[in-house]
Design goal:
The structure is a single chain. By secondary structure, this protein is mainly α. The protein has helices spanning about 10-30, 35-50, 65-80, 90-120, 125-130, 135-145, 150-175, 195-215, 220-235, 245-260, 265-300, 305-310, 315-325, 330-355. It contains 14 helices and no strands. The longest helix is centred in the last third of the chain and has 33 residues, at about 265-300. The chain is globular. The protein starts with 7 loop residues before the first helix and ends in a 6-residue tail after the last helix.
Length: about 350
């Protein structure tokens, strides 16, 4: 179904990891933790890798086509949040989107100093480890520039994992109760999801994934389905609600796949990388909070929405956070796509005009 390379062993391990992730999510929910299904499954798969990467999980790779399909479903869900009211804040969004360019330059410059001065990284590794977005582009361009691939990979994935972990926890303190499904978010769980609705969601996800790849959208796995379902929703052709189990299940898949990224990383490297990444992420979150505070005052856009929009996590992960808070996930996704575009654009300029090699 997801490719001829999937063996029975891979399918079995994937089912087991997802089951453990789901149970961990339920436990995290019972403990009233923020974003329980994503963070619970991330923790369980991270622990599984730590203990079994040289045993049962040796050579295991999470089926990325399955992850892509789930991300596409999230994109469809976010697209259904596109409402005519978005036009009411379009003028304010132009300013908040434009200021992302300034945020990207300041965040990248500060991160470069952190990895260069505190981490002792070479220029190329420090530069591409510090990018506040464009994970895959950073890895490809960084290796081309001579960056250390192991250091670069762990720093980029830790950025996303730490943001996904810290932002919901911080926002829980801000709003006074846990965010995410532990806060009672359940979409329209009381309304049954008809088979026809599920079929439409899957069709929209598949068509959106194809669209995103054809026109080469940034973060195409989520932006393609988002744009397609958003257009359908805006025209009134479809009216799909958000079933809780679908959002929770997608969180489990994303969380497990993120936790599996620790495969092949030694504990010594992880300990050193974690300290640097925490410093970098806290710097970017404080910088983002500053931008969100000023822009909220100037534009009247809620601070909560802007804080999520200026948090340098992955598009999919931050969009799920926005969904759980009902914080206009379509606008949040738009900001993160623009952040990635700015980051990749600046990286492309540096690749052409800046010598990052030592000596």
């Amino acid at each position: 179904m997801f490719g001829a390379t999937l063996t029975l062993r891979t399918i079995g391990l994937t089912i087991l990891l997802l089951a453990c992730g789901g149970l961990s999510g339920l436990l995290a929910k019972a403990l009233h933790l923020p974003m329980p299904f994503m963070l619970g499954s991330l923790a369980s798969s991270g622990l599984a890798i730590a203990f079994f990467q040289h045993g049962a999980l040796r050579d295991y790779r999470f089926p990325m086509r399955f992850r892509t399909l789930c991300i596409g479903l999230i994109g469809v869900m976010i697209g259904t949040q596109v409402k005519p009211e978005l036009l009411d804040v379009a003028g304010d969004m132009l300013l908040t989107l434009a200021m992302l360019a300034v945020f990207v330059m300041l965040a990248h410059g500060g991160n470069y100093l952190i990895y260069r001065r505190l981490g002792g990284f070479d220029r190329a590794t420090a530069y591409y480890s510090g990018t506040p977005g464009g994970l895959m582009e950073s890895l490809v361009m960084g290796e081309r520039a001579g960056a250390d691939p192991a250091q670069l990979t762990v720093q980029q994935f830790l950025r996303i994992i730490l943001v996904v972990t810290l932002v919901p926890a911080a926002l829980s303190l801000w709003v006074g109760h846990p965010v995410g499904s532990a806060a009672g978010f359940g979409g329209s769980a009381a309304e049954p999801v008809t088979p026809l609705a599920l079929v439409l969601i899957v069709i929209a996800a598949a068509a959106g994934l194809a669209l995103g790849q054809v026109i080469r959208l940034p973060a195409a796995q989520i932006t393609g389905p988002l744009l397609l379902s958003g257009a359908l929703t805006a025209t009134g052709l479809v009216d799909l609600h958000l079933p809780f189990w679908l959002i929770a299940g997608a969180q489990v898949v994303v969380g497990v796949s993120l936790g599996m990224r620790f495969s092949g990383i030694s504990l010594a490297m992880l300990r050193r990388a974690l300290g640097l990444s925490v410093t970098s992420v806290l710097f970017m979150l404080l910088l983002g909070a500053g931008f969100a505070t000023v822009l909220a005052h100037v534009t009247g856009v809620p601070f909560l929405l802007l804080m999520i929009s200026y948090s340098p996590g992955g598009v999919t992960e931050m969009s799920v956070v926005a969904l759980s808070l009902a914080a206009n996930p379509a606008l949040v996704s738009l900001h993160h796509v623009v952040r990635i575009l700015f980051t990749v654009g600046f990286m492309s300029l540096a690749e052409r005009h800046v010598n990052l090699s030592e000596g």
